[in-house]
From TrEMBL:
Pfam families: PWWP. It comes from Favolaschia claudopus. Residues 10-72 form the PWWP domain. PROSITE patterns: PWWP. This is PWWP domain-containing protein.
């Protein structure tokens, strides 16, 4: 997979993993842009605010569960046998580039 490891900053496109879900395309956002109930949610210091595609759901995700992705992975992801919603997420993230 076309993944890279660098410092994570708002505006980065990432694969973010929440318990019970596969790694999902998302964008790191500034905490100030989070809905109030998400912004106030308990989270550790080593976490980032993300917006998931395609539904624009927000969450805090631990840094260890985030991987930066390059634009070309969003252009041609390997989506064989992946959920339809996940396929839509990759497509929406690519369009947001």
């Amino acid at each position: 997979m076309d993944l890279v490891r660098n410092p994570i900053v708002p505006g980065d496109f990432v694969l973010a993993k929440l318990k019970g879900y596969p790694s999902w395309p998302a964008m790191v956002v500034f905490p100030e842009t989070l809905p109030e109930q998400v912004a106030c949610a308990r989270h550790c210091a080593a976490s980032h605010a993300v917006k998931f595609y395609p539904d624009c759901d927000f969450a805090w995700v631990e840094t260890a569960q985030i991987q930066l992705i390059r634009a070309r992975l969003l252009e041609k992801p390997n989506l064989v046998n992946k959920r339809k919603k996940l396929q839509q997420g990759y497509k929406a993230a690519h369009q947001a580039l």
